Amino acid sequence: MIELALKILIFGAVVSGIWALVASGFSLIFGVARILNFAHGTLFVLSAYFGIVLVKYGVNDYIAFVLGILFVGVVGVIIFRLTISPIKTHEVMVVIVTLAIALLVEQFLLLIFGEHGISFPSLISGVQNIGGVRITNIRILSFFVAIATLILLEVFITKTKTGKMINATSQDMEAAMLMGIDVDRIYLITMFISSILAGLGGLLYSQIFATTPIVSVKALIYAFAIVILGGLGSLRGSIIASFIVGYVIVVTITFLGARWSEFVMLLTIISILVVKPTGLFGVEE
Amino acid sequence: MRCVRVEAKINAKTILSVIALILAVVTPHLIPEAFVYILGLSFLFIILVVSWDVMVGYTGQVNLGHTVFVGVGAYTAALLQAPERLQSIGVAIPKAPIFVSIIFGGIIAALIGLLIGIITLRLKGYYFALVTAILPLVFMQTVFVWRNVFGGEEGFSIGLENSLSSSIVGKYYIALIIMVVCVVLMLLIVNSRIGLKFKAIREDEELAESIGIDTTKYKVIAFVVSSFFAGVGGATIVLYRITVSPDLYDIPLMLLIILSAVIGGLGTIYGPVFGALIIYLAKNWWLKEILSNLFKIAPIPVNDDIILYLILIVVGVLMPQGIYVELKKRCHEVRLKFEKFSKI
Q1: Cα dist. B255→A43, A86, A156 in Å?
Q2: Which of A99, A107, A269 has the CB atom closest to B305's CB atom?
Q3: Domain carrying residue B5
Q4: Both B149 and B186 in a single domain?
Q5: Among B52, B59, B64, B145, which would you mutate to test the A interface (most chain A Cβ atoms within 10 Å of its Cβ)?
Q6: What ipTM does the predicted assembly reach?
């Protein structure tokens, strides 16, 4: 019994950590630019595919890891510049266009790589035994990388000058503009950070689970559900919500089986939303 | 003077519709059966697009989960034709006649629409779009969770004998009749007093509220109407192609509906009919052929879906209000210039 509880605790933490990275990126760009980037899940899988291709061509694992993350950062900025920023005021069109981008890239990846899963080589190997629960080192590493990144993000936003400018823009775009902040530049920086968070999440994920082009939609659903649950635009809310979602999933998989996991998760989120429409820590529009 | 012009406009639309209808009636005798089959399906797709337009184009509430109702209608009709699948969860119902199951598909979809609408439409802004965006995924999961009832990813077949008609041409005409009935009913609704209230909500929700329109009530009515017809559309599609599968819940179908409505012009009914026809036939007929010819020359990783998504992205970025509004604006500008010119 204790072993089972410990297993749920550990595995839930790893899954939650990765989703927290993805969701915080999604939440960040919404909070700052008030856009819902439905191509966020695409950035998540693109980093994994790019990294895997680099490794295939003989690039060192660690360099491929870093390049994969930077690559999606650039892709994110390009998507923002070309498609999102011209129609920023038409919120729903942004959703539709980014969703179309997501499905377009998914089809493209399916045509090139096929639908079978692929994995990025684990950066570290080995297995740990914690109180009778066997867990791979890469999972432990992923958890700590995720937590460290989230702490770094928090420090960056609250302590550095650029971070404060991002924060100011998210609180009041017009006031920030009047204070001399170049809002368009801040959007691009935020989009870059948001994308590399998705990219990092994707590369960690693909070392633990198999990545397929369809995972992009799954990542989007998770990020989206978590962010709504945590409250749109609230970074801390989405981190807490990702742990709720992560544990709901792991508990459901343990007791009911994997096929129930997404259904139960989405139902939980919808029932919370029925009671509290702004999410757990939502900001009023 | 103005009245006369409005009447003339209605007449032009009516004449065009009659011509289109005559064409639709004659066509099956002119083209091969395989194309008749696709054309019939495209009529059913029109129902889905127009019913989305009733909600989105007329009340301005963006519903990203329209496929929920398509899927619910589809699975309802399919299970009414194959009730033995329900026995595994201890439900015994008799097999329903085909047209009863179509109506039931609509009714169940409308009931679910009512429930979702009452919960989500109280709030303004993003909320409705967000919640409806997740809903198709929830319903899609039910297909995988209760696999022996809904048939999982593969779906299931309702059997040849339960099809709309035994011949393809027969199916085509039934699809045509159902489409025309649905579109006419929806036209009557949006042109009635209720439809005026929908439009008032779209133009300015707070203003509508201030002159005494119960905005939540009318948004829910529009949503229920929209989901009813989506359900009827989904149910008829299943009886047309004899199989039901989770693709009727899925996001690509949602995007295809959006693309058609945006290309045709939101809030016009006629526009989405036209858009749906073009996009559906492009996807299932022209594009595939063009691309397969292209592949013989140069093997590039492009398929019909990629082209359609590209069109949607380009249209969305260049004309975020939709092609129809954009063209109307341009025409208006040209007319203004012309009038100025003629005055001189």
Answers
A1: 20, 21, 37
A2: A107
A3: 1-30
A4: yes
A5: B145
A6: 0.84
